[in-house]
Amino acid sequence: MKIICIGRNYSEHAKEMNAAVPTQPMFFLKPDTALNRENKFYIPSFSNNVHYELEIVVKISKVGKSIDPKFAHKYYNEFTLGIDFTARDLQAKCKEKGHPWEIAKGFDNSAFLASETFNKEDYDLNNLNFELLKNNESVQKGSSSDMIFKIDELIAYVSKFITLKQGDLLFTGTPSGVGQIVQGDQLIGKLEDKKAFELAVL
Ligand code: ZN
């Protein structure tokens, strides 16, 4: 199983990171050891600035290579919400040196996944509203309608380079409002008006 994460898929987030709005999707991988399905997150000792990034996560349902965008919808049935935890201080250093991002993005438990899953047939995936509350205050509010590249385009693009397999997870990018977490924070993810997860920061 692999975890594929899309970067800069919402223009407001690209702006807040002082990054250019991409003209084609960009992605990176997290190892399977990054997967975190527990409702808690321990801040790692090697970072002083871990950020949350709330994202819609698509679960790949069958193997596919060089998938045509118009058939991409056949490669997933379910989605959920997740958090791409990012050691922003390490990432800044990687960016500065032109190094890969793995130490900032791929560390253990950095890919949180809500246990709740949602059936794609029940939702309009191109107009999905989601929100992150930190200590009961809204910090990120997104809609998949603002994605620069839609889910089916992302699947087509990634599968040109990397074969997708059943069980792979696609983190589809974060809207603006990313920020730091500290010990004791509580994060709640909402999909439309439903609570999808509650997570304690330890
Ligand atoms: Zn992300």
Please tell me about this protein's structure.
Helices cover 15% and strands 36% of the residues. With 202 residues, it is of the alpha+beta class. It has a single domain, classed as Alpha-Beta Complex (Fumarylacetoacetate hydrolase, domain 2), CATH 3.90.850. β11 and β12 form a beta hairpin. The radius of gyration is 16 Å and the shape is globular. The chain starts with a strand and ends with a strand. Bound molecules: zinc ion. Zinc ion binds next to loops.
What is the strand and helix layout of this fold?
Layout lengths: L2 E5 L3 H6 L9 E5 L4 E2 L3 E2 L8 E3 L1 E7 L15 E9 L1 E2 H10 L4 H4 L5 E3 L4 E2 L9 E6 L2 E7 L7 H11 L7 E3 L7 E2 L5 E6 L2 E8 L1
The structure holds zinc ion (ZN).
The site of zinc ion has 7 residues, from loops.
